[in-house]
Design brief:
By secondary structure, the protein is of the alpha/beta class. Helix content is 31%, strand content 27%. The chain contains six helices and 14 strands. The structure holds cytidine-5'-monophosphate.
């Protein structure tokens, strides 16, 4: 499970990040552990407590998150990418604090790798679950993301329903269509997602 934001350094004291709290990813790690899974949680900078029975690896940037994911991927059956990975990072990190001088400062950004898409593209990919947080047109964007990244399941939510708060309202998108879950606190929602993953994996195995 990946969770939380990433932090992309600009210089030793500044960086680019986002407002992901990590709550949903940590709730999913907890729900997976409760369901009997051996869980490795790769977490960006958050204030969340590590759930019982979960092995946590702390990372800062997207590149570090990708390294941690790939070095722990062997033998994993399920990959759940909840982290809000920064799409871009500064091309170069200044070694010293950038001094104020001109009226303008340009920071050139380069694309970060898409960790989930890279994992899902592997020949021996685990069962891959992605998240889609959208501000509008959720069903179309979530389904497009599922196809583009070749995912078994996408958990879609409207940003106004979930970001930062304790509750969430999600819809699950899989090969059979859209399945809304009842709105609830993030742990209840996570348990519902884990139950859905277990049912899908069971039907994949028996088909
Ligand atoms: O394309 P978008 O960023 O909206 O996709 C969101 C999903 O992809 C989430 O599951 C997120 O964790 C994952 N992701 C990733 N690496 C990125 C960007 C997104 O794993 N660089």
């Amino acid at each position: 499970v990946t969770a939380g934001p990433t932090y992309e350094a600009i210089d030793p004291v500044r960086g680019i990040t986002n407002s992901s709290s990590g709550k949903m990813g940590f709730a999913l790690a907890r729900a997976c552990a409760e369901a009997g899974a051996e869980v490795t949680l790769v977490a960006g900078p958050t204030a969340q407590q590590t759930p019982a029975g979960v092995a946590r690896i702390d990372v800062t940037s997207a590149l570090q998150m990708r390294d941690a994911v790939f070095s722990h991927l062997a033998g994993q059956h399920i990959f759940i990418a909840v982290a809000a990975v920064a799409d871009y990072r500064p091309e170069a990190v200044a070694g010293q604090k950038i001094k104020k001088k001109d009226a303008e400062l340009t920071i050139r950004l380069v694309s970060n790798p898409d960790i989930l898409a890279e994992v899902a593209a592997k020949k021996d990919a685990p069962f891959c679950v992605g998240f889609a947080a959208e501000s509008h047109d959720l069903a179309n964007y979530a389904e497009a993301k599922r196809r583009a990244k070749k995912l078994s399941l996408v958990v879609g939510n409207l940003v106004q329903d979930g970001l930062g708060g304790d509750d969430n309202r999600v819809t699950l998108f899989d090969d059979a269509g859209a399945h809304p879950l009842p709105p609830a606190d993030k742990l209840q929602v996570a348990r519902g997602i884990v139950a859905h993953i277990a049912a899908l994996m069971k039907s994949h195995r028996s088909s």
